[in-house]
Amino acid sequence: MTPTLPRTVRAVNTAQLLDLAQEAARHGFSQRLPVDWLQEHLAAETTHYLFPTLVQRLTHRPEMPLQWRCQQLLTISTGEQIWGLLDILPSTFDKIPETLDTPSKKDIVSRIEQAVTVREWVERAADAGS
Fold first, then answer.
1. By the 8 A CB rule, do 50 and 72 touch?
2. For residues 56 and 68, what is the distance between their CA atoms, to the nearest angstrom?
3. Alpha helices in the chain (DSSP H)
4. What is the model's pLDDT at position 47?
């Protein structure tokens, strides 16, 4: 039976997000940013947000555990917020404390919908540097 996807937003600090990215890398999850990229670009003392949007089951790779595919709202060192994707084990997501009230969650989801993607931000930064 597939676990029910939680309809919530969880807040994590930069160190926690790096741990989540390292766990995703260890498992070989497809949706994750490289840990070294995150270390280079994330604002150090800030909060990032995870919003589960999809149950990810790789039927062609049965050895892979079920994952939550989360939209993540990241604050980078420039102060901008960008969004990307991160696959997380349900048990790992469940361990992140619920700290946000409903209006805050709605605001974060709205900001995710308006944010540029990591890819768009990287392309824009590359264009600005050339």
1. yes
2. 6
3. 14-27, 35-41, 90-95, 102-114, 118-129
4. 97
> Strands 47-56 and 10-13, how do they pair?
antiparallel
C-alpha of 77 from chain center: 16
40: Cβ contacts below 8 Å, ≥ 6 apart: none
pTM, rounded to two decimals: 0.91
- How many helices (H) and strands (E) are present in the chain, helices listed first? 5, 5
pLDDT-above-70 percentage for the chain:
95
Neighbours of 9 (CB within 10 A): 23
18 φ/ψ angles, rounded to the nearest 5 degrees: -60, -40
CA distances from 113 to 20, 52, 53, 97, 110 (A): 22, 14, 12, 23, 5
Tokens of 47: 């909060």
Which pair of structure tokens corresponds to residue 77?
């060192």
Tell me which of 64 and 22 has the higher pLDDT.
22
Find the mean pLDDT for residues 79-101: 95
Predicted confidence (pLDDT) per residue in 9-51, tens digit: 999 999 999 999 999 999 888 888 999 999 999 999 899 999 9
